[in-house]
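Consider the tokenized backbone below.
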């Protein structure tokens, strides 16, 4: 009987020890992954010359530049919803620069050849009527529209390919809504 009790106690202690060490390892792995995904700024001297020259031409009054690389695999068909902080590297195919132009905070993405492919600007004014009406007539009519809003343009054609990114919240639920300029909901992204 004593042997069975001892075996049982050893089994429980081993199980507890493995559980504790496994949880500790998971925490370490999570912390490491978080650090890996932290955006790394690239010195301007490591940006391809074509990119730097086109940026200087497109935004001659830019101040406070912060450059990051952006991998091709993450630049999906949904060009207006890139996560510019992922996997920063000078070996990237796209380069994202955050900067101040006048009093406006902007973010631009350039391909390696120097073409500006996306530009974002924080929207401090009210939303266009088409977007506001679409939100108030849609499933988010009861949700609060946050101050955080952006206009996102593609290929420097500032009116033809314009998307609005709006953050809405109801209780603890938050979403990013992406609308075309004429009020069509393009994407609804849950914020984790």
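A designed sequence for it:
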């Amino acid at each position: 009987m004593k042997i069975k009790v001892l075996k049982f106690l050893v089994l429980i202690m081993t199980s507890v020890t493995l559980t504790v060490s496994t949880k500790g390892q998971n925490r370490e792995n999570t912390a490491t992954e978080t650090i890996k995904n932290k955006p790394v700024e690239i010195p301007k001297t490591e940006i391809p010359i074509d990119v730097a020259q086109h940026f200087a031409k497109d935004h001659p009054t830019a101040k406070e530049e912060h450059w990051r690389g952006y991998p091709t695999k993450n630049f999906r068909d949904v060009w207006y919803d890139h996560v510019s902080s992922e996997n920063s590297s000078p070996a990237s195919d796209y380069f994202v620069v955050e900067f101040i132009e006048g009093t406006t905070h902007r973010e631009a993405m350039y391909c390696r050849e120097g073409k500006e492919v996306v530009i974002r600007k924080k929207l401090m004014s009210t939303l266009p009527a088409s977007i506001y009406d679409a939100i108030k007539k849609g499933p988010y009519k009861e949700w609060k529209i946050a101050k955080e809003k952006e206009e996102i343009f593609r290929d420097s054609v500032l009116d033809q390919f314009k998307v609005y990114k709006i953050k809405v919240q109801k209780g603890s639920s938050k979403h990013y809504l992406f609308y075309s300029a004429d009020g069509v909901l393009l994407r609804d992204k849950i914020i984790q």
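The first strand starts at residue 63 and ends at 70.
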